């Protein structure tokens, strides 16, 4: 099967699959899940590790080379290292990464690495214990910091920190996160607040353009230069402060609408293909797993409907969009 099979109608080649292994999470982050939580899918509706590996095997034959495990919180699934080992054995798969809140990660980092995990992205929206607890509705920031150290020790490189910037909540910590990159070989990625799963415009009250990061550098007279793109840099624009051990990246889905270079497809925990994070369109895959050709055809069908843009910039400007925004929250999709 040719590596150029997964090309959409806009010429974008897709070599990256994001796999949600669960819609459950041990936290209730304010931008991801309502305080009362969500109604989770019954366990019987969630794809098994064997089903996930079957899908990944078929897509590897269609040119997919990178996999990312997401949730919910993927580490609430038992023995995630078993799935990682299954995926690592698939010919053609070159990179397996994990997005996690880091609460359960520290004691598992070495085992995940040995199973075949390549690298991690850890969500960390505040370094202040009380604020972190407020944003996550109960999280312990010390556990996340311990997980960062454990991942560095295990050789999971690069370690990336995902920081969702929110106006009036954590924008005063931009300098603190930048200082982390001076002292440690990590990548801090500042991410704009996105309107995923929000059926109102309240998200705009927290939206902060990432120009603010450059403003903070200017205020402190910190020189920075573009940094070479590293493996898995994706949509981030990367920079390095002068003399820093690490780097920082800016991911601006709203103001930058980077869709022209999108190379990813998504598989939800309950077995739906989502060609685009933002829209309602999805395709139930579970009933055809085991029939390789049917799996291929369904992914091609989904890819054929992928729009040119998620149009979040239109939502910010209160303009009409060409598709219907999804009502599923980020934890239900897999990010």
Automatic annotation (TrEMBL):
<feature type="binding site">
    <location>
        <position position="31"/>
    </location>
    <ligand>
        <name>S-adenosyl-L-methionine</name>
    </ligand>
</feature>
<feature type="binding site">
    <location>
        <begin position="264"/>
        <end position="266"/>
    </location>
    <ligand>
        <name>GTP</name>
    </ligand>
</feature>
<dbReference type="GO" id="GO:0046872">
    <property type="term" value="F:metal ion binding"/>
</dbReference>
<feature type="binding site">
    <location>
        <position position="194"/>
    </location>
    <ligand>
        <name>S-adenosyl-L-methionine</name>
    </ligand>
</feature>
<dbReference type="InterPro" id="IPR010505">
    <property type="entry name" value="MoaA_twitch"/>
</dbReference>
<feature type="binding site">
    <location>
        <position position="99"/>
    </location>
    <ligand>
        <name>GTP</name>
    </ligand>
</feature>
<dbReference type="InterPro" id="IPR006638">
    <property type="entry name" value="Elp3/MiaA/NifB-like_rSAM"/>
</dbReference>
<keyword id="KW-0342">GTP-binding</keyword>
<keyword id="KW-0547">Nucleotide-binding</keyword>
<comment type="pathway">
    <text>Cofactor biosynthesis; molybdopterin biosynthesis.</text>
</comment>
<feature type="binding site">
    <location>
        <position position="29"/>
    </location>
    <ligand>
        <name>[4Fe-4S] cluster 1</name>
    </ligand>
</feature>
<dbReference type="GO" id="GO:0061798">
    <property type="term" value="F:GTP 3',8'-cyclase activity"/>
</dbReference>
<comment type="subunit">
    <text>Monomer and homodimer.</text>
</comment>
<keyword id="KW-0411">Iron-sulfur</keyword>
<dbReference type="InterPro" id="IPR058240">
    <property type="entry name" value="rSAM_sf"/>
</dbReference>
<keyword id="KW-0456">Lyase</keyword>
<feature type="binding site">
    <location>
        <position position="32"/>
    </location>
    <ligand>
        <name>[4Fe-4S] cluster 1</name>
    </ligand>
</feature>
<keyword id="KW-0408">Iron</keyword>
<dbReference type="InterPro" id="IPR013483">
    <property type="entry name" value="MoaA"/>
</dbReference>
<dbReference type="GO" id="GO:0006777">
    <property type="term" value="P:Mo-molybdopterin cofactor biosynthetic process"/>
</dbReference>
<dbReference type="InterPro" id="IPR050105">
    <property type="entry name" value="MoCo_biosynth_MoaA/MoaC"/>
</dbReference>
<feature type="domain" description="Radical SAM core">
    <location>
        <begin position="9"/>
        <end position="235"/>
    </location>
</feature>
<dbReference type="Pfam" id="PF04055">
    <property type="entry name" value="Radical_SAM"/>
</dbReference>
<feature type="binding site">
    <location>
        <position position="262"/>
    </location>
    <ligand>
        <name>[4Fe-4S] cluster 2</name>
    </ligand>
</feature>
<feature type="binding site">
    <location>
        <position position="72"/>
    </location>
    <ligand>
        <name>S-adenosyl-L-methionine</name>
    </ligand>
</feature>
<feature type="region of interest" description="Disordered">
    <location>
        <begin position="316"/>
        <end position="335"/>
    </location>
</feature>
<keyword id="KW-0479">Metal-binding</keyword>
<dbReference type="InterPro" id="IPR013785">
    <property type="entry name" value="Aldolase_TIM"/>
</dbReference>
<dbReference type="GO" id="GO:0061799">
    <property type="term" value="F:cyclic pyranopterin monophosphate synthase activity"/>
</dbReference>
<keyword id="KW-0501">Molybdenum cofactor biosynthesis</keyword>
<feature type="binding site">
    <location>
        <position position="259"/>
    </location>
    <ligand>
        <name>[4Fe-4S] cluster 2</name>
    </ligand>
</feature>
<feature type="binding site">
    <location>
        <position position="25"/>
    </location>
    <ligand>
        <name>[4Fe-4S] cluster 1</name>
    </ligand>
</feature>
<feature type="compositionally biased region" description="Polar residues">
    <location>
        <begin position="323"/>
        <end position="335"/>
    </location>
</feature>
<dbReference type="GO" id="GO:0005525">
    <property type="term" value="F:GTP binding"/>
</dbReference>
<dbReference type="InterPro" id="IPR007197">
    <property type="entry name" value="rSAM"/>
</dbReference>
<feature type="binding site">
    <location>
        <position position="276"/>
    </location>
    <ligand>
        <name>[4Fe-4S] cluster 2</name>
    </ligand>
</feature>
<protein>
    <recommendedName>
        <fullName>GTP 3',8-cyclase</fullName>
        <ecNumber>4.1.99.22</ecNumber>
    </recommendedName>
</protein>
<keyword id="KW-0949">S-adenosyl-L-methionine</keyword>
<feature type="binding site">
    <location>
        <position position="18"/>
    </location>
    <ligand>
        <name>GTP</name>
    </ligand>
</feature>
<keyword id="KW-0004">4Fe-4S</keyword>
<comment type="similarity">
    <text>Belongs to the radical SAM superfamily. MoaA family.</text>
</comment>
<dbReference type="Pfam" id="PF06463">
    <property type="entry name" value="Mob_synth_C"/>
</dbReference>
């Amino acid at each position: 099967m040719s590596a150029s099979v997964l090309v959409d109608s806009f010429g974008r080649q897709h070599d990256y699959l994001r796999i949600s292994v669960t819609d459950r999470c041990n936290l209730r982050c304010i931008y991801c899940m309502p305080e009362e939580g969500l109604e989770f899918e019954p366990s019987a509706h969630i794809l098994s590790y064997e089903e996930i590996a079957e899908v990944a095997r078929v897509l590897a034959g269609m040119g997919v080379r990178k996999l990312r495990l997401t949730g919910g919180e993927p580490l609430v699934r038992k023995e995630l290292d078993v799935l990682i080992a299954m995926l690592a054995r698939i010919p053609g798969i070159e990179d397996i990464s994990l997005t996690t809140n880091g609460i359960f990660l520290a004691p598992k980092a070495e085992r995940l690495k040995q199973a075949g995990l390549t690298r991690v992205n850890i969500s960390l929206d505040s370094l202040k214990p009380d604020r972190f607890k407020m944003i996550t509705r109960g999280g312990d920031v010390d556990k996340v910091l311990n997980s960062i150290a454990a991942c560095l020790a295990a050789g999971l490189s690069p370690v990336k920190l995902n920081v969702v910037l929110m106006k009036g909540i954590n924008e005063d910590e931009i300098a603190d996160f930048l200082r982390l990159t001076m002292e440690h070989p990590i990548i801090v990625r500042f991410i704009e607040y996105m309107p995923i799963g929000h059926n109102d415009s309240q998200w705009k009250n927290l939206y902060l353009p990432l120009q603010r990061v450059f403003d903070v550098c200017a205020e402190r007279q910190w020189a920075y230069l573009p940094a070479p793109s590293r493996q898995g840099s994706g949509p981030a624009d990367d920079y390095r402060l002068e003399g820093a051990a690490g780097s920082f990246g800016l991911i601006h889905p709203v103001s930058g609408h980077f869709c022209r270079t999108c190379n990813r497809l998504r598989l939800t925990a309950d077995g739906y293909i989502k060609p685009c994070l933002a829209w309602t369109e999805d395709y139930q895959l579970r009933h055809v797993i085991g029939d390789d050709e049917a799996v291929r055809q369904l992914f091609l069908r989904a890819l054929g409907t992928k729009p040119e843009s998620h149009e979040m910039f239109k939502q910010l400007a209160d303009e009409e969009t060409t598709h219907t925004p999804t009502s599923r929250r980020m934890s239900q999709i897999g990010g």
